Amino acid sequence: MYFKLNHAEQELKSVFECWVSGTRSYCVSQLSGGGGTGRGNQDYLKAQQLFLERLAMAGMKILKVALVSGRNETPPYDDSRELDLTRLPNQDDVRAFRIAVNRLAKNVGRDASKPGGSRTKKLLYEVRWPGDAKLLEGHVLKALNFVVAEPSQDDLKYKALGDYLEAQDDEVVVLPIHRIAGLVGGLPKSARSAQFWANAQNHHWSRRKQWLLRGFEAFWESKESQVRFIRAEQPTDDPTLLSARIEYEREQIRAKKGRRTPPSGSRKPRKVRSVVYRYERSASIVAWVLEQARGSCEGCLNVGPFIDDKREHYLEVHHIRTLAEGGPDTVDNAAALCPACHRELHYGLERDVQRTRLLNQIERLVDHPCRTQE
Ligand SMILES: [Zn+2]
Ligand SMILES: [Zn+2]
């Protein structure tokens, strides 16, 4: 459950999450409003102060303060993220305690290589009721004057839409505005506009991320009063997935007969670390095959299509039985090919015909058996 603090009849812009940990302690973590600048940040500190004041007034004792990353993270936390309470002033001096907590938190788990503290830190307080009494959630909420967070918090409100989209298999999901309103519990008047459903990340990100992060783009269709969610391209580093998607995208473009505007792409593609298994190849085999080809493709017999940066007619060496199929890295399994012939042997519709043709055409080649490894 998410909660906000009520203060002078007003909810502060900071969401707390609370749960009972074990039987006698209670966990409260302050989720949002931190980081950033401006009003949100002001509310975060104000909420933190109020929360600590109310804890002290109710006589609740703070057992632990830790930095957590995920929601609902439960103890034990690793030592590096638990603040050393012995270094903090007594919690009854709320202001001093709060300042000390934040100062300490700033430096915990800090990556020395990066300037500044992390902005995504969340503080979790493990608290205990006075006299070790068994905790009842109602007591805690009342003592702290917590109110159940209204679903007006965009993050929580629009999650239902995101979850719905994620569960769909279709590439296009069309939802009438009243359906969406039903899903998220009411929409503002402004929802009947293209602006509301714009796919920009800057404003109202908490709403937009519900479809953008799940791989959809939204399009408001005013005539029908509906929103068309189209599965947008999620960049991938998986070549098989990528080639499947390219095929799908091309079908889409053809089906719409060029009505599509050019895709926006990405100005800064993400870099991912990946593990690739490569076969070791012998330089002497490549060199020998290239040398005896003397600049001409052993497939089409044409001279290599351009002069490369080594001042050679450019050719590539292909394994007739691929190494992945258990083929050997030997001259009787390798041919020098121009890029066109080479690509055809990998991706051509007639690649098997071309392979047989090569085996017949080049005397030294042997048709090695396929031994696909598991
Ligand atoms: Zn060729
Ligand atoms: Zn090849």
Automatic annotation (TrEMBL):
Residues 284-343 form the HNH nuclease domain. It holds the Pfam family HNH. This is HNH nuclease domain-containing protein. The lineage of its organism: Bacteria, Pseudomonadati, Pseudomonadota, Alphaproteobacteria, Hyphomicrobiales.
